[in-house]
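Summary of Year 1 activities. Much of the first year was spent building the evaluation harness for sequence design. The harness presents a backbone, in tokenized form, and records the residue chosen at every position. We chose the following record to illustrate the format because it has been used consistently in internal testing since the harness was completed.
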């Protein structure tokens, strides 16, 4: 996605995000204050290259960023080469076998613990830790699958499926949607060979549906999610929390897909069913299988109201969200705050929106950096702010990447 804002808009936004007055910017850039004012007012349509370089340098951005000629980054320059290699490794292709470097073979408990640590980094939004650890988990799991038999081999397939799901999740978060789909598809294949094929396949299909939404294939995503949900749906007297959680999460994915496809009523029906399953659960839980429970279901309804363009209903629903009786990951709570901030901003309740954005940052500081909703909401607030708001506001803008230093200044 390419930035289309004008020089006037960008200069004003970057200045306010840096907590600088027009006078301070003019002084830092060694240009006249009237020059800054006229550019921001749009009355000065052209500027000398030297002036642009001075203004960009004073703001800590490139000239291209100031002119709005940069593509919005998804990955923030994160190196995913090791993850890409680990996901795409194929022992059937000469030269792509990842078992050549070492003969070490982990036990199934060791492998399971390693995968759980990677999952914990994922839900805690610790992307650096996850990107470092996940390629090794994938390699170790494939090695155990290859070199063991019987129940241990099926258990290793289960761990391998989990690792591929994490690969799909982090690749999607970073904007590499095709890689996310490839990893999710491999998770489905591994799940079918696991020691719990029905549940593990349903979990993996949830990730696959999520990647389909990201690829713009909302209809396919809804069909995948609803079909998988029907296969795993717990019966009336079935109190298995794992099946209930997977079922509910699949319905969340289906509802998101339905909203994306422009079918809010169908999405609401799916959410009502998911909420009924959550009500029967004993509290909120977060496991490799699912993040689900009464609070989680209520949060998702709020988020979907924002997605459907009804900010007033979203904030109304937020007032009725129950307190958690269990474990809701910080990144999920942070995501909810981002939706609340977007709703408040839509209603011009800017002070509330800033508060929600700050809460989201404090809950999951690394995770929110990769969420375009947060950056987009804050950019909107800055654009309509009549004046700079102070250093705390500037720090928030920097954290969300509304303005970031660019090493390649021109």
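For this record, the design step produced the sequence shown next.
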């Amino acid at each position: 996605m390419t930035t289309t804002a004008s020089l006037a808009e960008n200069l004003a936004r970057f200045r306010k995000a840096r907590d600088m007055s027009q006078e301070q910017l003019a002084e830092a850039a060694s240009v006249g204050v009237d020059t800054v004012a006229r550019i921001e007012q749009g009355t000065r349509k052209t500027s000398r290259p030297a002036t642009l370089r001075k203004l960009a340098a004073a703001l800590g951005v490139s000239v291209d960023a100031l002119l709005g000629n940069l593509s919005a980054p998804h990955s923030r320059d994160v190196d995913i080469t090791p993850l890409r290699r680990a996901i795409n490794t194929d022992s059937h292709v000469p030269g792509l076998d990842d078992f050549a470097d070492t003969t070490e073979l982990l036990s199934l408990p060791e492998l399971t613990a390693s995968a759980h640590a990677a999952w914990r980094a994922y839900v805690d939004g610790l992307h650096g830790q996850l990107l470092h650890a996940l390629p090794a988990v994938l390699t170790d799991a494939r090695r155990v699958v290859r070199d063991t038999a019987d129940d241990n081999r099926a258990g290793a397939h289960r761990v391998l499926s989990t690792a591929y799901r994490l690969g799909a999740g982090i690749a999607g978060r970073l904007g590499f949607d095709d890689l996310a789909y490839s990893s999710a598809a491999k998770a489905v294949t591994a799940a079918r060979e696991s020691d719990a094929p029905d549940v593990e396949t349903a979990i993996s299909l949830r990730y696959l549906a999520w990647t389909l939404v990201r690829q713009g294939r909302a209809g396919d995503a809804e069909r995948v999610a609803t079909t998988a949900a029907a296969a795993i749906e717990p019966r009336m007297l079935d109190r298995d929390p794992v099946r209930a959680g997977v079922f509910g999460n699949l319905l969340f994915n289906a509802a998101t897909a339905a909203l994306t496809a422009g079918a809010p009523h169908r999405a609401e029906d799916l959410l009502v069913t998911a909420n009924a399953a959550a009500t029967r659960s004993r509290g909120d839980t977060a496991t490799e299988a699912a993040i689900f429970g009464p609070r989680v279901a209520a949060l998702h309804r709020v988020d979907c109201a924002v997605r459907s363009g009804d900010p007033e209903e979203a904030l109304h629903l937020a007032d009725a969200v129950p307190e958690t009786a269990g474990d809701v990951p910080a990144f999920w709570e942070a995501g909810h705050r981002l939706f609340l901030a977007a709703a408040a901003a839509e209603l011009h309740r800017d002070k509330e929106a800033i508060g929600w954005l700050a809460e989201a940052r404090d809950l999951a500081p690394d995770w929110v950096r990769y969420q375009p909703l947060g950056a987009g909401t804050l950019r909107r607030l800055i654009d309509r702010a009549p004046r700079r708001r102070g250093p705390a506001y500037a720090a928030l803008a920097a954290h969300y990447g509304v303005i970031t230093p660019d090493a390649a200044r021109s």
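Residues 71-75, 405-410 have pLDDT under 50 and may be disordered. Quantitative recovery figures across the full test set are reported in Table 2.
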